[in-house]
Amino acid sequence: MKPGKTYKYRICNVGFKSTLNFRIQGHKMKLVEMEGSHVLQNDYDSLDVHVGQCFAVLVTADQVAKNYYMVASTRFLKKEVSTVGVMSYAGSKVQASAELPKAPVGWAWSLNQFRSFRWNLTASAARPNPQGSYHYGRINITRTIKLANTKNVVNGKVRFGLNGVSHVDTETPLKLAEYFGFAEKVFKYNIIKDEPAAKITDLVVAPNVLNITFRTFVEIVFENHEKSMQSFNLDGYSFFAVGSEPGTWTPEKRQNYNLLDAVSRHTVQVYPKSWSAILLTFDNAGMWNIRSENWERRYLGQQMYVSVLSPEKSLRDEYNIPLNTNLCGIVKGLPLPTPYTI
Questions:
Q1: Could you tell me which InterPro entries the record lists for this protein (predicted)?
Q2: CA distance 248 to 267
Q3: Tally: H helices and E strands in the chain
Q4: Nearest to residue 308, comparing CAs of 288, 285, 291, 279?
Q5: 286-312 core/surface letters (b: 16 or more CB in 10 A; e: else)
Q6: Which CATH number applies to 5-112?
Q7: What is the CATH number of domain 136-309?
Q8: Per-residue pLDDT tens over the stretch 158-209
Q9: Contact between residue 255 and residue 300 where contact means Cβ atoms under 8 Å apart
Q10: Half-sphere exposure at residue 178, Cβ-oriented, CA atoms within 13 angstroms
Q11: Which letter, b or e, does each residue of 175-190 get, where b requires 16 or more Cβ atoms within 10 Å of its Cβ?
Q12: What is the 3-state secondary structure (H, E, C) of 269-310?
């Protein structure tokens, strides 16, 4: 880096499992963007980046011209694993100090940092959609879905699930089955309820598909009853991460939601023995995956699909299937259904 200049760094956690803390010796990081959304530009000494999340920060070369270490280390694990990279000032041959900045301790610090993230409502950028749902705090919630991650042993093997169902992929892709009108031959809708059982003792291994009405405003609460960190992603949408607290969620917790400037994003972390809540309008027709970003858990069933069907079957809501799509399973060799029109 050239002294006096400011640089943009993009920090992504593309790992399988662990939250990472990122920091730079002797330098502040000004957070400017998070998963496609402009945020209030606060300065941070370090950032917890949970699995699947990306941040953009500005770093100014305003220190003594020499080398500095960038440090990434795991969080919330019994054994910390870390690595370093070198950030060099142009023309300097002075080595970086061997004394590395330490990571914060405990997840309460991380929760407070999450609460400091705010959407920048004055930035000159497009809002998530033209329906005006960026005034999300004024929209009536039409449905509340609570998803509790669960773990159990099924037929001698560890499985993970949501609300007592461990998802398994089907031979015929879910969207193909639905598009061709064969959904009932491949999977059943709504085998989980919107409210998990008070005590989940068994896991059912089956395709997990929840039907959500097109263009409804929905509240999803992720509950984590385990001692480990969780991180969830929703395909096809950005949502507002409005709240996260220790304990069990109740409707009264809505009083603590950020209903003004929560960041519009597509991943959310859930701390141990805690819950996180998101709000969104399901206005993107399709078959969308909700999954754990911990890939061991995702592979072993901690994921599900949301089916959002447009009753109009119109190109205004959803494109036709591409003509060169490879058909497989029970739809292999079949002619394509009547295409959607405007």
A1: Cu-oxidase_2nd (IPR001117), Cu-oxidase_C (IPR011706), Cu-oxidase_fam (IPR045087), Cupredoxin (IPR008972)
A2: 20
A3: 4, 22
A4: 285
A5: bbbebbbbbeebbebbbbbbbbbbbee
A6: 2.60.40.420
A7: 2.60.40.420
A8: 999 999 999 999 999 999 999 999 999 999 999 999 999 888 888 999 999 9
A9: no
A10: 23
A11: bbbbbbebbeebbeee
A12: EECCCEEEEEEEECCCCEEEEEEECCHHHHHCCCEEEEEECC
Alpha carbon of residue 80 to chain centroid: 24
Q: Determine contact, residues 217/140, Cβ cutoff 8 Å.
A: yes
Per-position DSSP letters for 19-32, written without gaps between them:
EEEEEETT--EEEE
Order of strands across the sheet that contains 157-162 = 204-205, 165-166, 157-162, 143-154, 217-224, 274-281, 239-246, 264-265
The two three-digit tokens of residue 186, written as one number: 């491949």
Global pTM value: 0.94
- 């994003």: which residue's tokens? 265
Q: At 15, list the tokens.
A: 């790992």
Query: For the chain, what are the domain ranges?
Result: 5-112, 136-309
User: How long, in residues, is the chain?
Assistant: 342
Query: Cα–Cα distance between 269 and 222 in angstroms, integer?
Result: 9
User: Residue 131's pLDDT is what?
Assistant: 46
Backbone Cα Rg of the chain: 22
The one-letter amino acid at 221: V
- 137: tokens are 């705090």
pLDDT tens, residue by residue, 76-89 = 999 999 999 999 99
